[in-house]
Amino acid sequence: MTEAEALIALNQLPKTGPVKIRRLIEHFGSAAKTLQQPNTSLQQVQGIGPDSAKLIADWESRTDPTSELTLAKERNIQILTQEDEDYPAALRDSYDAPVILYVWGKLEERDLHSIGIVGSRKLTHYGREAARKFSFQLAGAGLTVISGLARGIDTAAHEGAIAAKGRTIGVLGSGLMQVYPPENLGLAEKIADGHGAIISEFPLQTPPDRQTFPQRNRIVAHWSRALLVVECPSRSGSLITANLANEAGRQIYAVPGPIDRPTSGGCHDLIRDGATLVTDGSQILDDFSHLNFPTPADDEPRPVETYLDLSDEENAVLKALAHDDHAIDEIVNATQLPSHKISVILMKLELRNLVLTLPGQRFKRRR
Q1: Which domain holds residue 361?
Q2: Are strands 78-81 and 100-105 parallel, antiparallel or unpaired?
Q3: CATH of the domain at 15
Q4: Whole-angstrom Cα distance, residue 40 to residue 57?
Q5: pTM of the model as a whole
């Protein structure tokens, strides 16, 4: 048995989470060696009681890693362990990192630069439009939007990222063959088909339950470089995600709402407790300016034609700023692009350190 197969087997066992599995591997040297141990040896490991030891010792009658691998291959689903290069580094460093990640779609290196967007399942029109706006701006500027594919704010966040032709990752509280909610299957397919990935730590056919959703929330919290809460009441699972992100040292942002609406009470609580109030994606992008995006090798601007990874429209904006600073309306006249598109492009170029914002909402090419 390979180490990956042994990890899949351990991950398929009930009541054996990532922390216990990590302790077992540290104690016995590998997942494969763990599965060879008798009941008495397993109980010597911290946190492994008689019930857990019995389940692990009896793994052959309770798991089928070979069938799981075959099913994943048939469904074009990648199975990652922490040893795989594509496993997200931000998750690998967490104390309860998933042992296995099932990936439908494709993860990319740029997904390191990510922001979680969460909120209530029972959203208002205000919340939906705010989530779509922030997600559109942030994904359009190059950040990967991470959310839980749930009803409400999560759905709006994924939709906003897709509309911006950016990247988004949906983290499920179920197996990838049990997409929940079922009405979001089409959205999941769209994300996996070139817009990002759908991921889960649960075996493929695991149904959702009350325990799986909190586990999903920690992945969103730990993977994201920052977390934005768009709309939620004072008692909400989104606040659990925010607490997890805060404990992990992530920056928390919150969108304010009408003070007489309980639907925004959770966001107001977060702001009162120290979260950063934001009303536009540019305010978040300012805090992300330290990220290491590709920049010119010296202080002189390179010819626009050398930015082969930029779109024609992005290169057109850079060309308009080649010799002087300009306001947005001047860039519109030079490029014949609509102002809303110019705003998104400018944020993306600023995030890559190609453009500077000057007082009076003027912009110049970085020198």
Answers
A1: 304-365
A2: antiparallel
A3: 1.10.150.20
A4: 9
A5: 0.79
